[in-house]
Write the structure tokens for this entry.
Amino acid sequence: MQWYTDLAIEETISLLAIDSPTGDTAEAESHLLARFESLSVSARRLCKGGVLADLGGEGEGILLMAHTDTLGAMVAEIKENGRLRVSPLNGLEANNSETENVRIRTRDGRTYEGTLQLCNASVHVNDDYKKCERTFSTLEVVIDMPTSSAAETEALGIRTGDFVCPEPRTRVTESGYVKSRFLDDKLSVGILLSLASRIRETAPNRHIYMLITAFEEVGHGASFMVPGDVKELLCVDMGCVGDGLSCTEHTVSICPKDSHGPYSKEVVDALVAAAEASGARYALDIYPHYGSDAGAAVAAGNDVRFGLIGPGVYASHGYERSHRDGVENTLKLLFAYLGL
Ligand SMILES: [Zn+2]
């Protein structure tokens, strides 16, 4: 199990090194296609983005899902001072984005570095530094190029609609903690890639597909018709950790209900039974503010059972933290659930 846990974390780190905000995921998808190819798994890119892989196996189809798109931002305005006002891509929070380094990706393929700073960010100068509310109107990207006017910034090739990608700051501690932005949901993609290598060594008694989606953070990642023999969707996405919940970074979370409603009782029951049988440390938690790709696929009209599990991730949509124990317990549960 340790080998698969190490592999999942390695795969996660590789993927985290590729910027992939929702809407700009092609590079991450090419990387994923290459990873599946290295396992001799047939995989293809979907028209709207995302990768669908067929891992083979006999029997009823199950589709495992995780998402490779992340939070980020777009250039909304090139300001008179040459700096950038940005529009967040869905759930990026201004409060935890201040002082984050970013990469600006232009449409002609150039990349510039910069930092999201409070406007007038010097404490020694700004009388209102402490009381100023942090929003994407009071923050701006200071570009690490000698520009002080809109014309100079435009001359760099930067335009409205360019993607702005926060630095993930990935770090693995000796004590086993994995810290990074975007563990939601690249940690689960790493887990699925590790699982794929296990599936290739066995003869699964279900036909297993994997779907790595590219629009989850805006709600419609898996809103498409699933392959015909698929009767069940299992979404692997970050498990919530926080006040009132029992999951930690060391456990795998099984979600009976999120803010969109309950998951299939049959699936939740079977997941709990598999966790008990395998000795995976797990938590059952209701997520207060959460929607998943499984819910999106069902809302799109697919007649399937659906469930949601994932490694516990603290400080979600901020500088997130998980632990290799959470990865290991998620893999243990998946192995048991799929009979691998
Ligand atoms: Zn997610």
Q: What stands out?
A: DSSP finds seven helices and 19 strands in the chain.
